[in-house]
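Lecture 7, part B: from sequences to assemblies.

Below are the input chains for today's worked example.
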Amino acid sequence: MNFLWPYALAALIGAPAAVLIALWRARRREVPVASLLLWQSLARKLADSGRKRRTVLDLPLVLAAVSALLLGIAAAGPVLSGAGERGRTVLLVLDRSASMKMSQNGTARWDLARREAHKLLDELSAQDRVYVAASPLADPVRVGPLGPAEAGKLLDTLQPTDCPANLADDLSRALAAAEAIRPFSAVVFTDDPAAVPPEATGGAGVIAVVSVGGPADNVFFTRFGFSATAAVAGDDACRILLGVKNSGGPRDVTLSLAADDGGARTGAPAARSVHLDAGAEHTEIFEGDFAAARFLAAKIEADDSLAADNLLYAVRPPERRVRVLLQGNDNPFIEAALKVFPSVEIVHGAASAGQAAATAGPAEFDIVICNGVSPGAISFPGPVVVIDPPETFGPIAVGPPVDDPKITTLASGSILDDTGLADARIRSARRITVAATAAGARVLAASDRGPMVVENANVICLGFSLDRSNTDWMLKPGFPVFWAKVMERLSPDGRRGFVSYPTGQDAAVPPADGARTAVRVLPERGEQFELPAQEESFRAELAGLYELSSHGQPQSLVAFNLLDAGESSTKGSTGLFTREMIKEHVPDVGSGRAAGRSSWLLMNLVLAAGVVSVLAHWYLKQ
Amino acid sequence: MRPLAAPALPLAVPLKQRMTTDPFDTAFLRKLELLELVYRRLRGGRGAGESIGTERGGRMEFREHRRYAAGDDFRYIDWNVFGRSDSLFVKEYAREERRSVTVLLDASRSMQFGRPSKLACGKQLAASFAYLALVAGDEAVVTTFSDDLHRSISVAGRKGRITEVLAELRDVRPGGRTSIHGSLKTLYGRMPRRSLVVLISDLMDADCKAGLATLPARGFEPCVIQLLSRDEVAPAQTGRLHLKDCETGDSHSLWIDGAELQEYEHVLNEFVDGWKAFCSAQGIAFVTALSDVPFDELMLGYLRRGGVVQ
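Predicted structure of the full complex, as structure tokens:
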């Protein structure tokens, strides 16, 4: 139940006031009288009649309190929730997508839409109720009910976003939520009337679509790509691909790419002038060493109608900590090779043979190394390196040891490339074979005595011990490369890439150990806010670079970009609001009068109950 | 009817006092004169010294002739009439005597209640009775009492002497407890026999009926005027009250509300009806009145009903 005049609920204070008055009256007061002669007779009569002692909270008092309550509620104008209020009920849906920021002739589409919405509100009366929904929607689907004046104030506080439009879904959600306030009339203000699903117009509410805007004269990014970079292979060159499109007339634009470190070895940020014909698309590739860059910024310098899609950011993802489980015998050469990577953490497992390394779950470890022991059943998705297994495991069979094997074959393009194994001297090795039927099984290295290194899915099995007395491979420069390639299997796309999120999508927030994560917008726009503690993600409605920090220390950067060709090229139309539209789509029948009748009935019922209560109180007091 | 003239009575009371709490202000005196006119009209124009008594003695005046009856005193046969009419008629004479009107005004503490107070109303009534007694040529005795007699004044002769009564009454202040029986016992010896005794009181005295019952037997013509205040008839206070008797200091707690007030009304009616029944049985004139009823209305009502003033 809602109230038309909720301020009148202040009259409910009459109920406790009645009780207080009763308590005040109930206090003992000394009253001088001429004589107790008559009063004592009265007391005797009352005692003889057996009348009980009066209580403070008697029926008249209860009736007085009930009267105050009912009359207060009646004065507040109770109306049935769901049935709406007296007058018409209008659901305003405003398109807040990035295209609404486009401006023509100095006027942004958003301002135009808001002006049209104000025109609609001006046509409504004070008794009409307004619900406001915006797309893309924030958590609250709708705000209301509001009076037209309040709704106007709310409109003035809304701002467009850099997010792509999701008008169809958001409108469906808003209409579904509005089912509770039927009957209603919905009016959508958008620059993309085609996005309003036709089936919605035949739904619950009568829908009018007010379209705003004009032809899109815009140059925008269509692609922001990065080539993978080897982690330790010495190839630090990175190629950045920028795709642009011109939805306006022919023009010359300047594309630039900059990194926060200035591009390290390649020097100054690159800027290139490009001529774009009407409707033309263009791809530009920049190359440089951005190994030390925390983020990249690509920019289109053009005088167009939308600025949000002229600037892109991409940030380097935070270093990932790699946990390695070393089962079996300790080996200082393996550990030294792994510790080249600062993010690696080595955990020593049980040394006894036969204990399954696979007992370690993927949530705990990224790489499992079994040195001198055979793993049990393997259900581990990450790389498993088995060194000198004493016995057969899985599809991999272990044969008897052979002396002085000479490596004769190395599979090209395998993990053993550039590892120096071919030049290593090996005193003793076991013959390792793998069933040909096993998926992904292949021999990576073979000697004149048989296969020595095999690969089966994620398992790499070395048939020789990595003891110093058995081989000198650990002393070769290629030995750490082998482990680097094992590490690289964790991120096949390359650990040195850049990432960004589309606006409106959730970005992961690194754990902050219970602290709240502070978000600062870069470059400094004076915007700063805090996320709730333990928040795992956040969503930005505006494109840009966001710095996340906890405990006062910067933790990571997150980039949000508007990369939506449809949004950047929405043309819009000029179907503006007319007064006839309100007569046609927001009729003064049905919604207002039906709801008004039921609400009026409720109000009168409460009022009548209050009056009856007052009369009963008066009667009892007589 | 003779038009009302300016007050002929002396106004010895200061103006300020008359305008505030003086019960004997100019309006009161005007009403007294009006009362006198009504009184004279009701008495058929007879003036002072025209009260009718039944006692022999005093100055004898011819009253009327009547036929002789066996046993009549021969000395009263009018022989002149017998000579002219040849029938025996005897002359009848009446004794002209000065009667006495005794007003007993209760001045106990309970009489201070009411607006105006019962005592103020009682003073006006007492003064009225005294004035009319002077107009009739009778003696007026005004006595105030509570648990004992307070003060008393007796006047007779010209009506201007009412000022002495007013001056006396003006100084009366409420005090003491009501004791009608005790006061009457003291008064029996002082009151002139066969006088009219007017008792003005709220009768809030449980033991006073025995004293009143003896008055007719002693040859007095008693009249009881019960004065009650508006608050006593219709109490306005409700809730949990701690009632305190102004005379005794006793107290009693009661919850008073609509139902209790209704019951109180019954108790009051029983109280007044009890007094009516008692007075009727004893041949005592009884009137009950509210203190806020103008005294002249009260007196005129009595006079027109042939009440206590004859």
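Note for the exam: Residues 228-234, 262-267, 352-362, 589-594 of chain A have pLDDT under 50 and may be disordered. Keep this in mind when comparing with the next example.
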